[in-house]
Amino acid sequence: MLRNRQALIPYLLLVAALIGGVLWYESNKVPGLGRVVTTGQADVGGPFQLTDQSGKRVSDKDFRGRYMLIYFGYSFCPDVCPTTLAVMAQALEKLGDRSRQVAPILITIDPERDTPKVLEDYVKAFGPSFVGLTGSADEIKAVEKKYRVYAVKKPLEGGNYGMDHSSVIYLMGPDGKLVSFYDEAISPDDLAKELKSKI
Ligand code: NI
Is the pLDDT of residue 62 over 60? Predict the structure, then answer.
């Protein structure tokens, strides 16, 4: 039993502030709000076996010791994919020498059209360190599933197709585990700041 009811008021204000703080923190963890998203141990990512733009078979293990900055997209994407890859390129440029610790990787969601040769021509526009990965339809489906990527074909007029897809930048640690992930709307400055604080 409290002797003085008035003494309860600052305590209640503190509790309200703490709850508010937790809610604010939680809201920052919701993807798609254009905010930085951080998780501890989320079940996102995992081993993959794919083919790079030079035709070489590579796995996630080939990147151990470096960070992987992974984006799932496709070279025929008219807008969001090239914009997001350009944001990654600009952020890495801002890192200077430290960018060598990071492998920027595009994993295609359109393996039918994104052959190694197509990816080779495409990724070099974003910088010499960019890696383009493709594979069989099954290999791509498997890696999409591990990263919780949504990607479906959308027929276009004239018999062509586009891809409807989720658009997230994943930062994976030197151990291959998820460090953080970012909404496509992040700015090059914010992404650079994030990378500086995380790598
Ligand atoms: Ni796209």
Answer: yes
